[in-house]
Amino acid sequence: MPATPSTIAGFTAQGATLDELWRTLTLQAGYNAAIVVLGATLLGIAGGVVGSFIVLRKRALLGDALSHAALPGIAGAFIAATLLGAQGRSLAVLLPGAAAGCVAGVLAVQAIVRWTRLRDDAAIAAVLGVFFGAGIVLLSVIQSMPTGDQGGLASFIYGQTAAMNARDATLIGAVALGSIASVAMLFKEFRLACFDREFAAVQGWPVGAIDLAMTALLVVVTVIGLQAVGLLLIVALLIIPSAAARFWTERLRVMLPLSGAIGGLSAYLGACASALLPHAPTGALIVLVAGAIFAISMTLAPSRGVLASIVRLLRLRVRIAVDHALRAAVERADGARAAQPGRALTLVLRMGGHARVSDGRVELTPRGAERARRVVRAHRLWERYLIEYADAAPSHVDLSADAVEHSLSPALVADLEDALRKRGLPAANGPTNSPHPLDSGQQGGAA
Amino acid sequence: MNSTLHEFVSLDAPPMIAGTLAALCCGLLGNFLVLRRLSLMGDAVAHSVLPGIVVAFLVAGTRASLPMFLGAAASGLIAAALIEVVRRLGRVETGAAMGVVFTVLFALGVLLIERAAARHVDLDADCVLHGQLETLFWFPPEDSSEFWTVRTLAAVPRQVWTLGLMTLITIAFIAALFKELRLAAFDPALASSLGFSAGLMHFALMVMVAAAAVASFEAVGSILVIAMFVCPAATARLLTDRLLPQIVVSAGVAIAAGVGGYLLAAFGPGWIGLPNAVNAAGMMTVVSGVLLAAAAVLGPRHGVLARRRRLARLAVSIAREDLLGLLYRAEELRGPGTAVAQADVRRAIDSGAAARRALRAARRAGEVVHTPNGLRLADSGRARARSLVRSHRLWETYLVKVLGLRPDHVHATAMDLEHVTDAEMARRLAERGGEGMDPHHRPIPPA
Questions:
Q1: Which B residues, 204 through 243, put their C-beta within 8 Å of a C-beta on chain A?
Q2: Separation between Cα atoms, residue A283 and residue A294, nearest integer Å
Q3: Is B265 in CB contact (< 8 Å) with chain A?
Q4: Hey, how many other C-beta atoms are within 10 angstroms of the C-beta on A389?
Q5: A67: which residues sit within 8 A by CB, 6+ positions away?
C-alpha cells in the first residue's frame, strides 16, 4: 500500500479535537485541504447523478468493468510515455490512457453481448477480470523497467486523495460540474432512453447517440474519480448513492438531485474524516459513509423501506385478527361455537375501542358492533357471490371469504349487493344470513 | 535429474501447478454461475473476502492459513447473504445489490488494512490482488529414488496441497450433485416442484464459490479468481451446447490458461528480449481472455465468423435461386433460350458480393451458360428454376385465395417463402390454393 494519507494538508493528528473537526467541516483547515474536500464533494455529486442512469437501466456493474479496464490503459500510457522519453507520471498522460482503457472495456462488453450468446453478466465479469489481469501484467513490466517506479500508479488502484494537489482537485471539480451540467441539459433524452428505449426510437430520438453520451459521461466520471477513490471503489460512487436515493422516491426528477446529494454528502464526510483520522484512506471512508446512508435508506425510507414494509405487514395482520375476532363474536351470538379472543387480542380490541371487559367477559362496544356488522356482511356477501356466480359449494366458501373480507371496499360491497339483488336474493341492509350452517366447525382464523 | 529440469521442477512447477489448480476449481464452478447469470458473484465474493482475511489475521495474529481461510470464507458467505437481503428486502436489482455490498465490504477491508499497517502489521491489499504465485518453490532431492517419500512431498508448498484438495472437492461436489445443479441452473421452478430446494442448491453453490475463491487467493490473488469464475465457462459455452461437454471443455480451457499463462509469463519476456518475468496470475487471466475471444470469433457453431459464413452462404443460395427464377421468367416472356444481359441480372438480384458468388456457383453447376448476349438458362437449371417459380406462384395464389390478401401485396412475401418451400409443402399449397393461374394471371408451372 502507498503511504498513508494521514499527512493531508499538514495534519499528523493522532486524534482530532472538536476545533479541528469544526475547521475541517467548514473548510477552514487550510487551502489545500479545503480544495481537496470540495473536489471530492463535487465528484461525489457527479457520481450520484451520472450513476443513477446505469442503476435504473439495470447495468450497475458495467461501471465496475469500466473502472477495472482503466488499469491497462493507465499502465500502457505510462509505458508508452516512458519509452518516448516523456514524464510518465503526469496526469496529462495517465488520464487519457485511463479513458482509452475504459472505452476499450465498454466496447468489449458491448461486442460480447452483441455478437455472442453470452449474457451481459458474463460479458462484464470477463472484461473486468481480463482487463484487470492485463493491467497487472503491465504493472509488473513497469516494475522491471529501468526508470520504472510504479508507486504513483498504485494510488490509482486504491485511490489516494492525499496525493491530490490543488490543481488536480480543481480539474476534478470542474469536470464534475461539467458532467452535472450535461446531465441537466440532456435530462429529457436520458430519461426517455432509460425508461422506454423502443418508444424513444420510434419517436425518432437518436437512441444510439444518447447511449453514447451516457457512456461518455460514465467514462469521464470514472476517470476523474480514479485518483480520489481508486479504480476498485469508484463504482461504489456510481451505484450506492442512486440505489439509496431510489428508496425515497418514485420520480426521476427527485431521484437525480437526491442521489447527487447523497453522493456529495458521502464524499464530503468521507474526505473530512480522512483528513482528521490518521491511517484512514479517503476512498474507503467515502464508500463506508455511502454504505451507511444506503443502510439507513433501506431501513427507514417511508414507503419502500424495510421497516415500513414490516409495519405495513404487521398492521394488516392485526386488522385481519381484529376482523376475525369481531366476526367470531357475532357468530357466537348467532349460536356458533367460536373461540373467545386471546389476551393479546382482547387488549388490541379494547385499545381500538371495539370491545370492553365486564365481569370477565369480553363484549362489543357499539363501535365494535358496527365494525363487526360490516365484516360479517362482507363475509356473507362474498360467500353468496361465490355460490351464485362461481358455482362454489356452500361448504367450501368460508375459507375463501375469510381471506377476502378484509379487502372489500364499501363500493365493492355495494356492487356485490346490486349483483345479488339482480338474482333476486334477499340482500337487505342488515347482516345477511350465513349461507351455510355456522356450526359446521369450519371457523376460520378467529382463534 | 539434469539441472534445467531440476530448476523447472523447483522454481516453475509449484507456481504453475498452483495457478492451474486454482483456475481449474474456479473454472469448474463457473459453469453454474454463468448459466445462472451469476457470473459477477465471483467478482463480488472475491472483493468481499478482504475484511474477513484482515480480521482473521488481526485476531489470530498469524498468517497461518486456517484462520485466514475461515475468516475469508465467513465474509464471503456474509457477502452472499447480504446481497440476497438487499435484493429481496430492498427490492434492489441483483447487479446493484452486488455493487453496494461488495464495495462496502472491500472498503471496510482497505480501511482495516490501513489501520493495521499503522501498527506495523505486515499485511497489504496488494497480495490479495496479485497473489504470491512467484514465492512458491520446492526443492526436490537430487536423487530420484527419494522423490516420492513422505518427507519430500511434505515440502511441496502448502498452497499446492490446499488447491489440489479444493479441486478434488469441487469435482466431487459437481459429480455428486450434477443432476440437481443442472436442474437448478436451467429450471429452478421445476427443481423446487420436484422436491429439492433450488434455494438450498444456490446456498451450496455459494459455499463452494466462497471456498474456491478463498483457497485460490493466497496463491493467485483475486484477479485470477474473478477471471476464472467466468472465462473458461464462457469459452466453453460458446463451443458446446450441452452441459457435460461444456464442463469438460471449461476444464480444458482452465488448464490451458493456467499452464500457458505461466509459461508465457515466465519465459515469454525472454523471447522478446526483456530481462524479467511478468506477473503470472495476470498472464493467466490474459490467456483465458484470449481463449474466450478466440472462441467468440472462431467457434465452429456460435462463433462470429461461422455465423457470418452461414449467413453469407444463405445469401448466396438465395441469390442463386433468384437468378434462376429471373432467367425462367425471361424465357416465359420471350421464349426458350432467351439470354439476359449480365448488367440487368446484377441489377435485378442486387446483393453485391453474394450475387457475384451466386453467378459463379450457378455457372459452375451448369445451371446457367454464358452467351454473347448475356446469361441463359441451361437445361439442367430449368427444372430447379421451374420448381422455384412454381413455389412462388403457389404461395401467391394461396395468400390471395386462402388468406384473403390483396394480389398486389403478396409478391414480396412469396419472394421470401419460395426459398424455404420443399416438395411436400408445395403439394399441400397446391391442394389448398389450386393450380392453374396465379393472381397475376401467370401460369403456375406444373410440378
A1: 223-224, 226-231, 233-234, 237-238
A2: 16
A3: yes
A4: 12
A5: A102, A222, A225, A226, A231, A232, A234, A235
- Is B231–A126 a contact, with Cβ atoms under 8 angstroms apart? yes
Nearest to B278 among A115, A137, A309 (CB): A137
**Under CATH, what is the fold of the domain A5-304?**
ABC transporter involved in vitamin B12 uptake, BtuC (1.10.3470)
3-class secondary-structure state, position B375 = strand
Query: Do residues A51 and A241 touch, judged by C-beta distance below 8 A?
Result: yes
pTM: 0.81
Cell matching residue A354: 371495539
The arithmetic mean of pLDDT across residues A359-371, rounded, is 82
Beta partners for residue B376, in sequence order: B339, B369
Half-sphere exposure of B204 (CA within 13 A, CB side): 18
Tell me phi and psi for residue B368, to 5 degrees. -130, 155
What is the C-alpha to C-alpha distance for residues B196 and B207, in angstroms, rounded to an integer? 17
Measured CA to CA, the distance from residue B354 to residue A119 in angstroms comes to 32
Inter-chain contacts counted by CB atoms under 8 A, chains A and B: 221
**In contact, B137 and B8? CB cutoff 8 Å:** no
Q: What is the pLDDT of residues B246-297, one digit of tens each?
A: 999 999 999 999 999 999 988 888 787 777 788 888 899 999 999 999 999 9
Q: What is the ipTM of this complex?
A: 0.83
Cβ contacts (< 8 Å) between A233 and chain B: which residues? 103, 106-107, 110
Select A311-440's CATH number: 1.10.10.10, 3.30.1390.10, 3.10.20.30, 3.80.30.20: 1.10.10.10
Which CATH number applies to B390-447: 1.10.60.10, 3.90.420.10, 3.60.21.10, 1.10.238.10? Answer: 1.10.60.10
Tally Cβ neighbours within 10 Å of residue A163.
16
In tens, the pLDDT along B63-101 reads 666 787 788 888 888 998 899 899 888 888 888 999 999
Summarised one tens digit per residue, pLDDT across range A246-289 is 999 989 999 999 999 999 999 999 888 887 877 778 888 899 99
Contact A133 B292 (CB under 8 A): no
Instruction: Give residues 7 to 36 of B whose Cβ lies within 8 Å of A.
Output: 34
- Identify the CATH homologous superfamily for domain B3-256: ABC transporter involved in vitamin B12 uptake, BtuC (1.10.3470.10)
Distance CA A273, CA A290 (A): 13
Interatomic CA distance for residues A159 and A274, integer angstroms: 12
| Interatomic CA distance for residues B275 and A216, integer angstroms | 39
Residues A52 and A256 sit within 8 Å (Cβ to Cβ): yes
* Phi-psi group of A85: left, alpha or beta (phi > 0 → left; psi -120 to 50 → alpha; rest → beta): left
> Cβ contact (<8 Å) for B99 and A140?
no
**Cβ–Cβ < 8 Å for A207, A201:** yes
Cβ proximity of B396 and B342 under 8 Å: no
3-state secondary structure of B369: strand
Q: Which of A185, A175, A255 is nearest to A221 (CA)?
A: A175
List, as one string, the DSSP characters of B381-441. HHHHHHHHHHHHHHHHHHHHHTT---GGGSHHHHHHHGGG--HHHHHHHHHHH-SSB-TTS
- Identify the top-confidence range among A55-59, B58-62, B246-250: B246-250
Provide the residue ranges of all domains of chain B, joining segments of one domain with +.
3-256, 303-377, 390-447
Q: Exposed (0-12), middle (13-18) or buried (19+): which is A415, by Cβ within 10 Å?
A: middle
Which residues in chain A have Cβ-Cβ distances shorter than 8 Å to B250? Answer: none
> What is the number of other CB atoms lying within 10 angstroms of the CB of residue B343?
9
How far apart CA A11 and CA A276 sit, in angstroms, is 7
Amino acid at A310: I
- CA separation, residue B7 to residues A395, B146, B157 (Å): 86, 17, 16
Mean pLDDT of chain B: 84
